[in-house]
Structure formats: C-alpha cells, structure tokens
Design goal:
Elements (H helix, E strand, L loop, with lengths): L9 E6 L3 E8 L2 E8 L6 H19 L4 E6 L2 E2 L5 E3 L11 H9 L2 E6 H11 L5 E7 L3 E7 L2 E2 L31 H4 L1 H12 L5 H9 L3 H25 L3 E5 L1 H5 L3 H12 L8 E3 L6 H16 L2
Parallel strand pairs: 1-4, 4-7, 8-11, 11-12
Antiparallel strand pairs: 1-2, 2-3, 5-6, 8-9, 9-10
Length: 302
C-alpha cells in the first residue's frame, strides 16, 4: 500500500447499507466520523442528513486534495447512482458531482467490494484475491495482478445476487434465491424474527447464537452454507489464489468463517484445496480501500 500522504488532507468515505464511515487524514492526524442511517426518516430527510454529514466532513477536512469513496451503491460512469436494492431512494443521485462540489477536490468512487479487495490485497503477497463481504448485504471484489476487475457495467463480482439460495428467499432486488436474501445480516435477523415469532435486533441475535439457541445456530449454518456455495462457484469461474471473508456481519459472528470452510469441505472442490481467510481489516476493509484510492489520487495530482 502506498502510505505517502500529501500535506493537504485526504478523505476516505465508505457508504454502506446502514451507515457511512469517513476518515480524514492530514499528515499523522486522523479523524473518524460515522453517520448511521435513520430508517424512520423519509427520503427527503435522509438526503438532508447525508448532506449535513458531508458538510461536517468537508469542514473538518479543510479543502482536501482528494476523496476516495467506497460505495455499496452501483455508480455509473457519469457518477450517478444507477442501482442500489438496499436503498433504492438513492437511484439517480449524482453522487460524484455532489462530493466534488462539497469537497472541491478530486473524487474517485469504487464499488465497496472492490475497495475492500484492494485493501486486503495491499497487505498480502498474492497474485489474485477475491473478497466476500457479508454485512447489511453481500458483496464481492476481485483483484488480479494488481488490477480490479469491474466488468462492462461495473457490476462484476456481485456475488450477493447469484441465485444459490432456497426458492422462498426473496431479495431486496426483487428476485428470488439471491445469496444476499439468505446470507446477509439483514436476512439473518429477518429469518430469526420470523422463525421465533419475535422482534429481533443485532444484540439479541448475537446473544442467541452465544447461548447456543438451536434456531439461531441453524440459521447461521444456512448463512454459511449459501456463502460457501457462492465461494465454490467463484472459485470454479476465477480460480483466485486467495479467498477472503469480511464485512460487519462476519466480524460480529466469528463462528461464520469456520462454518463456511466446513461447508466448502462438504461441497468438495475437485481436488483443489479452498481455505477462506479472515479479513485483515474486518469491517473497515472498504474504508481502508477508499483511503488507498484517495492517496493514489492525491499523489497522481501532484
């Protein structure tokens, strides 16, 4: 990873399904700020809050030289949001223009899965790396020979929407059987709530797994099995040297990684050994990837 930081500040932003993380770096000083989406707000109020958060970051950054953004939303070549099943109200938002106007610096936006893959590849000696992020949704990113593979429309490695889950699972994108419909943090909580007939939050779900609740353990095993199927599928297509599992849900449930590796063993893999490695940066992989983007951009503009 290029660690050279210019004298002017740089800003890294990770726009996720439930929150936005921001990191401001000026020489040795680092400032972190987080914004959690209030799901009770209407679209107009949400956008007002997001704009206010970006204003706060802009004021703290004091005219940054560059801004790197990891985005869970799909952002088209013109800088506007073209797809985001978890937050459809963002579709059509001219995100790059908004950020360039607010920060008055160069802005580079990357898919959050790709940004995480960039971060994870930066601290490993590997020819190719595929990253699987399990958080509010499920995403992926692929780096080979130092290059990110984005596909024609920027949606390559979108592992969360491969149809490998049970038929009854309906995704936020409207399709059935998506990996994300079964194996995301949101799907895990929804499934537990439906099976137990009670309202569910992240803290209570975590306590059920810790206590060995049979329903919670069975649901977590299903999450692992579907993630494992997706990973085996990716391995057949891309044959990466390194597989990494990360994301907020994976960090909150360290039991998930060994369950995934066990499920992969049960699936079989044609004589090739597939061992999924833990994320080095945990739930901050995408933010670290955004930092790398901002640093490269700042150095390119010197």
């Amino acid at each position: 990873m290029n660690k050279e930081i210019p004298h002017r500040s740089i800003v890294a932003i990770d726009i996720g399904g439930t929150s936005i993380r921001a990191l401001i770096i000026r020489n040795e000083k680092r400032i972190r700020r987080d914004h959690v989406f209030d799901t009770s707000q209407n679209v107009s109020n949400e956008m007002t809050q997001v704009a206010a958060f970006f204003d706060e970051i802009g004021n703290l950054a004091e005219a940054p030289s560059s801004v790197g953004v990891a985005s869970a939303a799909t952002v088209g070549p013109c800088g506007s949001v073209t797809d985001w099943s978890n937050r459809p109200q963002w579709i059509g938002l001219e995100l790059k223009s908004l950020l360039e106007h607010r920060f008055r610096g160069s802005v580079e936006i990357e898919d959050d899965g790709n940004a995480a893959a960039i971060a994870e590849a930066s601290i490993r000696t590997t020819a190719s790396l595929f990253y699987v992020g399990v958080g509010t949704g499920v995403g992926g990113g692929y780096v080979s020979d130092g290059l990110v593979h984005r596909g024609t429309n920027g949606q390559a490695s979108n592992i969360g929407h491969i149809p490998l889950g049970p038929y009854h699972a309906v995704c936020t994108c409207g399709r059935r059987r998506c990996v994300q419909a079964v194996s995301s943090g949101r799907a895990f909580l929804s499934s537990l709530s439906n099976d137990l007939g009670i309202s569910m939050n992240a803290e209570y779900a975590r306590s059920l797994v810790t206590a060995g609740n049979p329903t919670a353990i069975r649901t977590l095993n299903l999450v692992a099995e579907v993630v494992a199927l997706a990973i085996v599928t990716v391995d057949r297509l891309l044959d990466p040297e390194t597989m990494v599992l990360g994301g907020g849900f994976a960090q909150a449930y360290p039991e998930l990684l060994p369950l995934v590796n066990l499920a992969i063993e049960r699936e079989g893999h044609g004589g090739k050994s597939i061992t999924v490695m833990p994320s080095f940066f945990g739930k901050l992989s995408s933010l670290v990837g955004a930092q790398i983007l901002a640093t490269r951009l700042a150095n390119d503009c010197k």
